[in-house]
Structure formats: structure tokens, C-alpha cells
Design goal:
The protein is an alpha/beta fold. It is built from 8 helices and 13 strands. One of its GO terms (cellular component) is cytoplasm.
Length: about 280
């Protein structure tokens, strides 16, 4: 089984990779199953049919996926290529506590196989440009990031896995905050995830970003295993042809070394387990 469970296309604001080309490339790469997870980030982005003016950041529209077109296109792709590859329908919910109700309405509108829940912003402030971190100590912004994550998953349950759980590390200009100092917050998040029957993802983009550790880190993955966590997905966070399927087999080996035996794909929001050594 070769599956990529975090894939963006031109339906996401930060990609121009056409969905059909993604599928054709995946077939060529002998990927068995692919799940599209287009961006939705209420709070900083609006829906195309919201009636609000679409603001552009460079060439990128600050808009969420065009859901009706997205769903229609996925169905057409399933009909055209379904005999060659399994195609699953997902979204990546970039959620904040004050946007939960908007995501719930969206989830209730459509049938999904898979939802990644990610914390991309806090108080509508982003990490990549240091807006969120500005004026805070390293301790303050790390703790606030995980506090927001914990509060979101305490309130919202219609998701499958937490995406790139320690994303804040990628944008920490002061270096990686010591795990032991943030462990109580991470453990609380993982305990909630496990209690709710949810999972976490291994996001292989850590390799292309040149990070020294996996995303999430080995320590988070080890803690998740020690706490009894079993639901794991692996995704490339692909936005371009060179991202698709990258480092997924390496991630399987890493998970085996940590002691995990299985990973998951999803069908109608239910995990399907696969042996890591296959």
C-alpha cells in the first residue's frame, strides 16, 4: 500500500497543481490511494461565494477551496480514474476557537472521507511571518499554540487526525523549544486525541523544509505510542509535482523503528489499518 494522505491542488490558494495532473502523476508513481486535503482557513480567508472581496497575497487568493467545484471535480476524477487509483475526499481545516462554528457548518454540508485538523493561526495571526510570535517570549507563544490546539479539540470532534502537530517549530526563529518544557501541553492534546478516537499525521514536508526532526517530532510520536495512540496517517503536504509521495516510505520505516506496527487510510471518516511492513 502506497498512500499519500495530505495533498493540495489548484483548489488550494497556495497551489497551481491541477487535480487531474496530480492523479496522473500519482498513477505513474504507482501510488495506490490519494486523499485530497484542500485548505480551509476561516478567520483569514473567505469563501468564494461569501460576497466579500477576495484579497490577494501576491498571486495567492486569500480564499478557501471552492467547495462545489471541488466536489464536482473529485467525482469526475473518480469516474475517470477510479479503476487505476483510489481517490478520497478530504479537506484541511485550519481551525481556531472562534471559527469552530463555521467549520461545523461546512462539515455538515458534504460527505467526507477524511479531515485534517491543523492550527495554522491563533487569533488570526500567522506563524510564517512571525506575526503570532511578535511581542511574546518563546515560552509564551509555544504554550499559547498548544493551548489553542487543546481548546479546539475539546470543542470540535468531526476530524480524523491532527495535522503537522508541532508546526510552530518550523517557524520558531529562536530554535526548537525544549520538549520537556512543553510536554504537559502536548500530552494533554494527545490524551484528548486518543480519548476521542482520533489520530495524528506524520507530515513528510519536514524533509523538504530541512528540519532536523520529523513532523511531529520523534518525541511526540514516542509519547503518542506510550499513551496508546494507534491512528496515524502519512502525508506529503504536496503542493507541487516534486512534493507528491515524497519521503512516505522513509516515514514508514521511521514509524516501525519507534515501534508502531500499522498506519491508516480513511473511508467515510473511519480509519482503515494497514501493516507498516507492506
Amino acid at each position: 500500500m502506497f498512500a499519500d494522505y495530505h495533498v493540495h491542488t489548484a483548489f488550494s490558494d497556495d497551489s497551481i497543481y491541477p487535480m487531474e495532473k496530480v492523479i496522473q502523476d500519482a498513477i505513474t508513481m504507482k501510488i495506490d490511494e490519494i486523499c485530497f486535503t484542500e485548505h480551509v482557513d476561516y478567520g483569514i480567508k473567505v469563501d468564494w461565494d461569501s460576497g466579500q472581496k477576495i484579497i490577494y497575497r501576491g498571486n495567492e487568493p486569500m480564499a478557501n477551496a471552492n467547495y462545489p467545484e471541488y466536489m464536482k471535480t473529485i467525482q469526475a476524477m473518480k469516474e475517470k480514474y477510479g479503476h487505476q487509483i483510489t481517490i478520497k475526499t478530504g479537506l484541511e481545516f485550519g481551525m481556531q476557537t472562534h471559527t469552530i462554528s463555521q467549520f461545523q457548518k461546512l462539515f455538515d454540508r458534504y460527505d467526507f472521507d477524511f479531515i485534517i485538523l491543523s492550527i495554522h493561526q491563533v487569533h488570526d495571526k500567522e506563524f510564517w511571518n512571525q506575526e503570532f510570535q511578535k511581542g511574546k517570549t518563546q515560552k509564551e507563544y509555544n504554550e499559547e499554540y498548544y493551548k489553542e490546539m487543546l481548546e479546539v479539540i475539546r470543542q470540535y470532534k468531526d476530524y480524523s487526525v491532527l495535522g503537522h502537530m508541532d508546526l510552530i517549530n518550523r517557524y520558531d526563529a529562536q530554535g526548537i523549544y525544549p520538549f520537556e518544557k512543553i510536554k504537559p501541553w502536548i500530552q494533554a492534546v494527545l490524551e484528548q486525541v486518543i480519548a476521542d478516537g482520533k489520530g495524528i499525521e506524520v507530515n513528510t514536508s519536514s524533509k523538504r523544509y530541512g528540519l532536523k526532526d520529523s513532523t511531529p517530532s520523534h518525541k511526540i510520536l514516542e509519547l503518542y505510542k506510550d499513551l496508546g495512540g494507534t491512528i496515524l496517517t502519512i502525508g506529503s503536504d504536496s503542493h507541487k509535482p516534486e512534493h507528491l509521495g515524497a519521503y512516505i516510505q522513509d516515514s514508514k520505516k521511521m514509524l516501525q523503528e519507534i515501534g508502531f506496527k500499522q498506519y491508516c487510510t480513511f473511508d467515510h471518516m473511519k480509519p482503515v489499518f494497514h501493516d507498516l511492513d507492506r
